[in-house]
Amino acid sequence: MERQAAGTVHSVFPSSCNLQFGERLVHLGTGEQGGLPFSVIVDEKQLSDMLPCLSPNDSVSWNARDKEIFFPALNIRVSFQGGLSFRSEAKAYPVEKALLKSGIVALIEIVSWWNDCNGFGESVTETVLGMLEPEASVTSTPLVHELGKLQNAYGQLNPEAFLEAAQYFIGRGKGLTPSGDDLLIGYLAAAATNGAPLREILHKLQALLDSSGSQRTTRISLEYLHFAVRNQFSSSLLRLCEAVFTGNLNEVRQAADIVLGTGHTSGLDTVTGVLAFLIPLIEGEAK
């Protein structure tokens, strides 16, 4: 950023807010849901005092010299002096099939217990069953059909087919982070944790986001997608993926509860994307 960058408050939530500086978005919140790849984590009490006084389009500025964000309307400065930096990059884990299978089964059970509809208006149980039994028409749904295209394209390592399948999901659904984006991010996070060979796929996704991303989805969701193609995800999502791949069942349960509790259906949609990548691994349908 520039030495003094002017921006605005993009959106305000009960426990966080988003700040926009030109094309860049910064999430200001607590560590309750983990660290986002574009987040600043601050003290919960300080943030709760600020948020009721903020409104979208309020001015805000970033001072690179003093390393602080300034809110003129509140006369409050958030200093980065002494702050700790973090990078939420996915780490690849070797696949031990027995551990991976136990982690996936545990996650499927948790999602089934959740017993709710995803952001596509479909029962999550039906979606999971449809992925587990792709040939059983009784459990087939429109979402399972589109997920099948995504899974097949990845299984064939076909960047063009994967991009075509991914376009169905980008921006699909309502909310600040549409369900299709949440699902796609979950899929990419699981793939990255698996060390999947996605370079050409990610290159094409990045080009699509650069050329038409702002017309396809929301500003906040686009930011998540931009980081996802650069192998960066929320720390809570990475924690879940790591737990599944290492077969740490207690950690799977704890991390899943955090992710599933995100937003109205965002967490459920994200975990559906994670499972969309994982399930073929234990069925022998993915490389």
Topology:
Elements: E1 4-12, E2 16-21, E3 24-29, E4 39-41, H1 44-50, E5 59-63, E6 68-71, E7 76-79, H2 97-114, H3 124-132, H4 142-155, H5 159-169, H6 179-193, H7 199-216, H8 219-228, H9 235-246, H10 249-260, H11 266-283
Parallel strand pairs: 3-4
Antiparallel strand pairs: 1-2, 1-5, 2-3, 5-6, 6-7
Descriptive notes:
- By secondary structure, this protein is of the alpha+beta class.
- The chain is 50% helix and 13% strand.
- It contains eleven helices and seven strands.
- It has helices at residues 44-50, 97-114, 124-132, 142-155, 159-169, 179-193, 199-216, 219-228, 235-246, 249-260, 266-283; strands at 4-12, 16-21, 24-29, 39-41, 59-63, 68-71, 76-79.
- It has a seven-stranded mixed beta sheet, with helices on both faces.
- A hairpin with a 2-residue loop joins β2 (16-21) and β3.
- α3 (124-132) crosses α4 and α6 crosses α11 (266-283).
- The chain is globular.
- The model has no long low-confidence stretch (mean pLDDT 89).
